[in-house]
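Data card: per-record layout.
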Amino acid sequence: MALQTIPARIRWAVDILDVQPADQVLEIGCGQGEAAELICSRLQTGKLLAIDRSESGVDRTKRRCAEYLTAGRLAVRHIDLATLRVPVKRLDKVFAFNVNLFWVRDCQDELALLHERLSPGGTIALFYDANRAEQLPTQLEKASAALVQAGFRVGVVDSKNPAVVGLLGRR
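The structure for this 171-residue chain is written out next.
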């Protein structure tokens, strides 16, 4: 099936994530299902668990990615990260785009769960639109500090076009 229209910023972020065919991936805040669709298109034996606090986000992702749900490559849940029990022993990658959790409040419990579940060498990738110049420094500073405090080694990736900045936390 041909992929639906996916914004350049999402394509760039998923390319950076470097999804492999057997990866176990968690997407936090699946929203429109754009990243879920692109991630699932790269999986063969791997799986994506996409979560969102918004019921409408879950519904949109399920509609957009019905083929991958049927194939067993995708599970979508209406839940927030704080109450999630990850159904696999190990995750290879965690993906979030413009998710406020990591810079708005204390998220150490959630990051501890992710650190515990990520495979050695696994990555948590937090991406933010760089067009929000007034918020970006605060977002990056707070999210980076939270990742470091949780035991991740943090690197930064960025793109001018599309305007995106990502924090890559490695276990």
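Known properties of this structure: Strands lie at 24-28, 47-52, 74-78, 91-97, 118-129, 153-159, 164-170. The helical segments are 8-17, 34-41, 55-64, 66-71, 101-104, 108-117, 136-149.

See the next section for split statistics.
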